[in-house]
Write a structure and sequence with these properties.
It is a single chain. Helix content is 84%, strand content 0%. With 413 residues, it is mainly alpha-helical. It has a single domain, classed as MFS general substrate transporter like domains (Growth Hormone, Chain: A). It is globular, with a radius of gyration of 21 Å.
């Protein structure tokens, strides 16, 4: 493929990956306005965020087999069309419960881009290139936390929160056109790929039995859960505790998200001299240390607005190193089942993310403690899974070599 073709493909794949995060980030500044308009509180509106996470988790399990059976593009068309219709529905939502249901359905449409884009990276690029390509996708995905909250804050302030979903509808239509005109079909439909529940479960079972997949999928999921805890808790922390305005919150969110972009692009540079495994280990050690510092300082009451922003910025910088490398290492063992592996990885990630965001809301007490505690726990757990999983992978690899050598010796007798 030419450089121009590669750029077009990565650009479209990036926006397919970003549609979910963009849908989350853009309406966050509107939480107070939505709550006021629908006669409820922010905690109730936050449930629509949790329902979105649940929809993405469930949807990815559904789309994984579909993109392996029907090719990558046809399921994308269906998912994006569902997203457009439900986004229009969100503009007319008249209750918090209706918004919660519509956001669930919107997530079912959005997640097809996340599943198919990761599978297409595995289809179109070699194993040695995938971590670099995921870093480039992070450049586009990382733009969404910068643009989305800021844009959402201005749209909410000037036009009202309902127009946030009008903008999301227009974005989805543009992505749909990009898929049609610029994205090649990387995998032709496979009529022999069965969609019977027993076979589908068997394919997922084969994926989950791979120790490399389990290690890096859960490592990435737990690290990402810290990000979702921040997303769920930050509106209340910044706008209620620190009393920033909707526009100021959008700029703070954008500034912190800049760490993701910087680190994800620095990751591409580091991959020239270091392995993905080495980068993840150092990044998670730094993230765990930052998370502990953030939580301990919150308990002691020593952090003000600016120090809180700085520590969260550092925390999320580490995420820019973890995501691309954990994704690449998770999908590396798979080719035929890349769609199922991508779906299972995404479902694990969103499932753990949903749990962390829900816990922030459950333990909300008017302080930053629930958010910072869960962020720290997620980073520490991710580092622990990584170190334990790497040890298991080495043991199994050694056992496999021994068994192979034993078999060769027996065959020669």
């Amino acid at each position: 493929m030419s450089k121009r073709s590669n750029f077009q493909i990565i650009f479209v794949l990036g926006w397919l990956s970003a549609i979910g995060p963009f849908s989350i980030d853009m309406y966050l500044p509107g939480f107070p306005a939505i709550a006021k308009d629908l006669n409820t509180d922010i905690a109730h509106i936050s449930l629509s965020l949790s329902s979105f996470f649940i929809g993405i988790s469930v949807g990815q399990i559904i789309y994984g087999p579909l993109v392996d059976r029907f090719g990558r593009k046809k399921p994308m068309y269906a998912g994006l069309l569902l997203y457009v219709l439900t986004s229009i529905g969100c503009t007319f939502g008249n209750s918090a419960d209706a918004l919660m249901v519509l956001r669930f359905l919107q997530a079912l449409g959005a997640c097809v881009g996340m599943v198919a884009s990761r599978a297409m990276v595995r289809d179109l690029f070699s194993v040695t290139e995938t971590a670099k390509v995921f870093s480039l996708l992070m450049l586009i995905v990382g733009v969404s936390p910068i643009i989305a909250p800021t844009l959402g804050g201005y749209v909410t302030a000037v036009l009202g929160w309902r127009y946030v979903f009008v903008v999301l509808t227009l974005i989805a239509i543009c992505i749909l056109l990009g898929v049609y005109f610029f994205l090649p079909e990387s995998r032709q439909p496979d009529p022999h790929y069965s969609l019977k529940p027993r076979v589908i479960l068997g394919n997922f079972r084969d994926v989950i039995r791979d120790s490399q997949f389990v290690t890096y999928a859960f490592t990435g999921a737990l690290a990402t859960a810290g990000l979702y805890a921040y997303i769920a808790g930050s509106p209340a922390v910044f706008m209620k505790i620190y009393n920033v305005t909707e526009k100021q919150y959008g700029w703070i969110f954008a500034l912190i998200a800049l760490g993701l972009i910087i680190s994800s692009q620095l990751n591409s540079v580091l991959l020239r001299n270091f392995k993905s495994e080495q980068i993840i280990r150092i990044a998670l050690l730094a993230q765990s240390s930052t998370g502990i510092l953030l939580f301990a300082g919150t308990i002691a009451g020593v952090w003000d607005l600016f120090s809180t922003i700085f520590l969260i910025f550092v925390f999320l910088c580490c995420q820019g190193f973890t995501f691309p490398n954990s994704s690449a290492l998770s999908l590396a063992p798979f080719s035929r089942n890349a769609g199922s592996a991508s779906a299972l990885m995404g479902a694990i990630q969103m499932g753990v993310g949903t749990l962390s965001s829900a816990l922030v809301n459950v333990f909300a007490n008017g302080t930053a403690l629930p958010m910072t505690c869960i962020m720290a726990c997620c980073a520490i757990s991710s580092f622990s899974v990584l170190m334990t999983g790497r040890r298991i992978i080495r043991i199994r690899a050694t056992a496999a070599v021994v068994n192979e050598e034993t078999g060769d010796m027996i065959s020669k007798l």
